[in-house]
Write a structure and sequence with these properties.
six-stranded antiparallel beta sheet, mainly beta, three-stranded antiparallel beta sheet, Metal Binding Protein, Guanine Nucleotide Exchange Factor, Chain A
Length: about 90
């Protein structure tokens, strides 16, 4: 699987986890040069509290386009250390 934004590969792995139609990439498969911390947090009723990254590619910022669960609930513990994408990031096989 690949996560692509503005023709740049943000993440690539064959070890993704699919949850609710979202591919979660292992953190080590994500190109960290594109990530910047965000102050945004949201709560999922079964996964826990999500934190976000914004993506910067070619000088353009895509706010909160990646999320992860630093301390997921026991039901979602398999996605600890994984990052998912949205907001214009294409995830392809």
């Amino acid at each position: 699987m690949k996560a692509i934004l503005n023709d740049k590969v943000i993440a690539e792995s064959n070890q993704t986890i699919n949850i609710e139609g979202n591919q979660y990439f292992p953190a080590e498969a994500v190109n960290k040069e594109y990530l910047s911390d965000s102050q945004t947090n949201t709560v999922c009723h079964w996964k826990g509290t999500a934190s976000y990254y914004s993506l910067e590619v070619d000088g353009k910022i895509n706010q909160d386009a990646a999320w992860y669960y630093p301390n997921p609930s026991n039901m979602a513990k398999n996605i600890k250390g994984y990052i998912a994408f949205w907001r214009g990031v294409k995830v392809i096989n």
